[in-house]
Amino acid sequence: MCGILGLIAQTEANQVLYDGLLVLQHRGQDAAGIATIDGNTFHLHKGNGLVRDVFRTRNMRALRGNAGIAHVRYPTAGSAVDHNEAQPFYVNSPFGIVLGHNGNLTNTEQLQQELFLEDRRHVNTHSDSEVLLNVLAHELQAHSTMRYRLDIKNIFDAVSGVHRRCHGAYAVVAMIAGYGLLAFRDAYGIRPLVIGTHQTEKGTEYLIASESVALDTLGFKFLRDIAPGEAVFIDFDGNFHSKQCAENPTLNPCIFEYVYLARPDSVINGISVYETRLHMGERLADKITRVWPQHDIDVVIPIPDSSRPSALQLANHLGIPFREGFVKNRYIGRTFIMPGQEMRKKSVRQKLNAISMEFKNKNVLLVDDSIVRGTTSREIVQMARDAGARKVYFASAAPPVRFPNVYGIDMPSRRELIATGRSDDEICREIGADKLIYQDLDDLKAAVRKVNPAIKYFDASCFDGDYITGDITPEYLDEIEAARENGNANKEDDAAQLDLDLAANE
């Protein structure tokens, strides 16, 4: 999961892009980058860390020009620590292009071979996003005129070529020197992408973003979602063009965006994220009433932050008091994206603190958006007991996560997923709860579809193992898990060396 922005403005673009990245920070805390264009010259700054740490005043001053793209990175494919994999990426042949990508390609290895053997293009990193950039550059070259000139048809034909070659999930923003801003979305619409406009005295400004919340906070009016398979091109004069570039596109949004990834104040594919989470709570309350009619729950407590709407609605439907039982330290990064179980376990206590009076001598129902690895859930259950809870029940607004996600969410290893190969009762014992209630997948889909009945299908592969791109084999899953384990081993070696270095300096 990453956050992307693309901007055609009437004034300097750097501040708008920076502010937009702050709004999308929840989509990636590993790295950040901004590229702007002034005339035919690109200005690029990127690095590892949070947005506020990557950019200084001198960096911002150097990002000149009225157009640009920006990216916050949450590592999926490739190394989690290599600063060279921060985006945007850049190529200069045959056109100057910078690109930012949200998602994950599932045929990266095949594309790397094609680029090297057939397209004669070199890829510097292990990032699938750099592969995608080079595929786009090659397709632009292949569809350009004899003198390497582009028109709208050439650009859209090139995107059609990208769709034919690239498999998986991708929402993309790219700038082509001398031409304009290009954005497109994969044929399944797995990852979100929206367009907004802002009217000024000098003309219309356009902003493309991963979530509508970026448009809202920056003063842009929501125009629409970019459709699955659609490409949008805005030239530097502000002329807007769009075309459907994929064969047989269908909308299959990632349902985990609504469960956890997106901000609650966003609207994605015509669906209010906040409203879906309210409906998830209603559905979960109905299930508790159905399977546990004689429950003895005294209080419902959310695990901050994304589960709060579901927990509130669940409590209302059950007629049980809703209370805030945990205070969150907002200066600690999200545990979901932290590498290594020990780091994740350590961070939970730093991130949350229990309010003892809400737990003491009570039967508490804790509500979370989902349970992925189970480490955080186990720690929070123990925190509730330590705070004096008589019994600790646990409810998940999402079904069990039993399968790897290969479309851009960092949970690809079955061995890391607590629900893989375990029954609900076994998971309950693993996290130390007295009872565990999971949302049913049909109810989750119904909760999201209730807001927009036109959505017929979802990518719910992490719950049901149904990979909609049709190219995911057991061998592929084995390969990405092996790569992940090798990466984690390297991270552990790096952490051990860091410990030794710190000890030597004490």
Provide a quick synopsis of the model.
With 506 residues, this protein is an alpha+beta fold.
Ranges where pLDDT stays below 50 over 5 or more residues in a row are 334-340, 489-506
Q: Please identify the oligomeric state.
A: single chain
Beta-strand content: 15-25%
Number of helices: 16
**Helix proportion of residues, in percent?**
25-40%
Q: Characterize the largest beta sheet: strand count, sense, and whether it forms a barrel.
A: 7 strands, antiparallel
Shape: globular
Radius of gyration: 23 Å
Mean pLDDT: 90
Terminal residue distance: 38 Å
- Largest sheet, order of strands side by side? 3-2-4-1-10-9-11
Q: Based on DSSP secondary structure assignment, what is the total number of beta strands?
A: 21
Structural class assignment: alpha+beta
Description:
By secondary structure, this protein is an alpha+beta fold. The chain contains 16 helices and 21 strands. The protein has helices at 14-23, 51-54, 57-62, 108-117, 128-143, 152-165, 212-217, 256-261, 273-291, 308-318, 341-351, 375-386, 424-431, 441-449, 461-464, 474-505; strands at residues 3-8, 31-38, 41-48, 67-73, 89-91, 97-105, 168-176, 180-185, 194-200, 203-209, 221-225, 230-235, 240-244, 267-268, 271-272, 299-302, 326-328, 352-354, 363-368, 391-396, 435-438. A 7-stranded antiparallel β-sheet has the order 3-2-4-1-10-9-11. Strands 5-6-7-8-12-13 form a 6-stranded antiparallel β-sheet. A hairpin with a 2-residue loop joins strand 9 (194-200) and strand 10. It starts with a strand and ends with a helix. 51% of the residues are buried. Mean pLDDT is 90; it is low at 334-340 and 489-506.
